Amino acid sequence: MTLDDTPAPTLTLRDRMRRDSGDLHHALDTRLSLCDLTTPDGLARFLKATEHGLAPLAATQAPSAPLAADLVARLHADLATLGHDPLPPATPLRADLSPWAVDYVVLGSRLGTSVLARQWQAATDAGVRAADRYFSAPPQPRAWRDFCGQTGNMSPIGETADRAMDDILDIFQLFYAGTVLVTSDFTAHQDGAPPTKDP
What we know:
With 199 residues, this protein is mainly alpha-helical. The protein has 8 helices and no strands.
């Protein structure tokens, strides 16, 4: 076999999800990193931004929608503990969001939250530690592994894949909008607009 005959690595839907949402996901994480989870103010900002993105997903028909609803209830409880209200409801996304897109964001968020929980656990403020509902939610590793197994055997091209990617980017844009709302007063941080979808 010559070099020209070497098969290209097989790209899956899971690979495409990670690759095509990477820039926007990084922009979102950068914004969220402005929230100090060890202070009441910083934690409230983080919880508000997260609720802003998750709440619309709880109303979908995706398998992870009940999990999203549970997480939203936990976020509301923690915000109440801190004496804060959620942000105004976001503009609704399309009613028939791809279940693959919703599951990618909801289940994947549990992994990131596991990392952030370690920051929250370092807090010494009693009020911060009392707002423990969201960070005590189960991490859902099995559901995430099952999702990765399924999408790891799916094609990255075609109508299903394209719809999933469009919806993932729309969902991340919604989350990003929430982070902008809660961090807009951090004038020292200027990272510009988030990446957008191709027209």
